[in-house]
Amino acid sequence: MLTTRHLMTEDLIALRETDSLLSAKRTMDEARIRHLPIIDENGAFVGLLTHRDMLAASVSRLAEIDDETQEEIYAGIPLKEVMRTDVAMASPELPLRQAAEILLTQKYGCLPVVAGGKLVGILTSSDFIRLSLELMDALEASETATEEDLEP
């Protein structure tokens, strides 16, 4: 049986709850990610910051605030003030199908994977798209091989 352990990303980028919203924005921009796990000083998972949360915490562009002022505002906001703490999590042993159902039905973009309170991975909808592409490639290769076997 496939579990979240088989598909999750283990090479994680995470910030601490005391880091600023500015550091989160820069990290997300540089790494081109939309979900940022937040950990405490012991590595325990304490929350999640999403791109949507970042937008909700930002000052509207309609306020005509320049980028420098916006960054100053972000620098003064600790992540513990804007992160989500009511986050669905998965264990590494959670069946992959069940994880997919959670992402789909709850409309989550990711599931942090936690073992013993520590963040050990993250499973995103992009991971499932990547898996789908691999399965489609394998299916096409199988169909091509079968067609070749049928040729006289």
List its traits.
152 residues, alpha+beta, three-stranded mixed β-sheet, two-stranded antiparallel sheet, 17% strand
Oligomer: single chain
Would you report the number of β strands? 5
Radius of gyration, taken over Cα atoms and rounded to an integer in Å: 20 Å
Overall 3D form? elongated
Distinct helical segment count: 6
How many angstroms does the end-to-end distance come to?
Answer: 38 Å
What fraction of the residues are assigned to beta strands by DSSP? 15-25%
Which residue ranges are poorly predicted, with pLDDT under 50 across at least 5 consecutive positions? Answer: none
What class do helices, strands and sheet pairing give? alpha+beta
Give, in spatial order, the strands making up the sheet with the most strands. 1-2-3
Give the SSE order as H and E letters.
Answer: HEHEEHHHEEH
* Proportion of helical residues: 40-55%
Largest sheet composition: 3 strands, mixed
Mean pLDDT level: 89
Task: Describe the model.
The chain is elongated, with a radius of gyration of 20 Å. About 45% of the residues lie in helices and about 15% in strands. It is an alpha+beta fold and about 150 residues long. A hairpin with a 2-residue loop joins strand 4 (about 110-115) and strand 5. The protein has six helices and five strands; from the N terminus they run αβαββαααββα. Helix 2 (about 20-30) crosses helix 4 (about 65-75). The two termini are about 40 Å apart. The chain has a three-stranded mixed β-sheet with strand order 1-2-3. A two-stranded antiparallel sheet has the order 4-5.
